[in-house]
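pipeline/complex-builder :: batch 7 item 3
reading input block
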Amino acid sequence: MRFLCVECDAQMEFADREVPGDGTLAAVFRCPSCGRHTAMLTNPMETQLVSSLGVKVGGRTVPAAPFEGIRTGIASGREEAFHDGSPSGPARIVWSVDAVERLTHVPSFVRGMVKKIYTEYARDHDIGEITPEVMDRARTDLGLEGM
Amino acid sequence: MKVRTYHELEGQASDLGDQVAWQNERVSQRLKSVRRVVAVMSGKGGVGKSLLTSSLATELVRRGHRVGLLDADLNGPSVAPMVGASAAPLRFGADGILPPVTADGLAVMSMGLLVPDGAAVRWHEPAEASFVWRGTQERGALREFLADVAWGPLDFMLIDLPPGTARLVELHELVPELAGALAVTIPSPASRDAVARSLDLARAREIPVPGLVENLAGYRCEACGSVGRLSGGDAGESLSRDFDVPLLERIPFDPTLDAAAANGTLREWLAGSSRTGRQIGRVADRLEQSLGHPASPTAEELR
């Protein structure tokens, strides 16, 4: 799938992926010539089809996490099915109240995966507490704008 | 206005096809450390296939093989408690999800480890037309069970398939190098017809069938060990003749085996050299012999 800015005859570039709600998936593309943005919107069924295939419209920016489809797809999963990823040693990672509150704005069906990404980022950077500032830094470093 | 074609553009693309190909490549890479992937199929539900698969996996472990047991019955998972696999939270290792390993050394993965006991497996889904994507979601789950679990080097991976034929096709597409599909039936004519469809499919896809087991072929008395009649039919012999597949064993219902599975003590039961246990041992012999001696190195070990 490619998007062409007809006026500029230039291929548009993938800019962002958002889940604005109502089961919609928005893939935003930008024309590198005139700067115009275009969003491709999928309906809930199309979103689910893409999700169930385990692919990303616009291409993947990060590799798929293990059991990504299962973890985000199962509605009746056991709450404690997965260890939360926190190490049991001295470098245990905690979440600040503000960070936890911010996490609640992430759609529930991808929240676990997002939490794991931030946790891994914190561990990789020897960060003991995840705060909104750490989340911002991770988004920038990992190219996860919109999460 | 002239609009260029897709292939005239050379920039970034979603490459959904490449993403799917990459997913399949991950399965292939993971299974390079597995010598033999063996499906256990029936086509018919209620033939005791999961119990036989769990018993065979335990028997192979008992013989010193490195064995993985994958429960591909996503909507009716049952093998984990039979082999004593704990439903403790799954951990993420450097190489993927770490599978629970039983006290016997059997690595297990099952949807039963991910959903509460007695709960149906439900997916996040739009209100309408879930049939459109449900199959894709389940195929994706099977793929993740194969590719995302850090199975490690295995001599055998046994895969317990659900009733029907669809999962065998999905599995074969994901694992073209499937070493074989062991077929399980019960004596009844209804089972014969259902298992015939599975065998026909296996033949059409050129999947080797190392043999056929007729399960619940009578009832073994717990007191005297004699076998009485349980139901009519000759599905085992009939299928063996029609599909030129060896009938490996006719295994009666044995309440002591049932109890061992319920108690998670299959290994001890198999070590007890009961008549039913020896029959399962002979099926394991056949898997070892017909699928090649697992002393040969894996592709990963050859590198």
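note: Chain B touches chain A through 48 residues (CB under 8 Å).
queue -> next item
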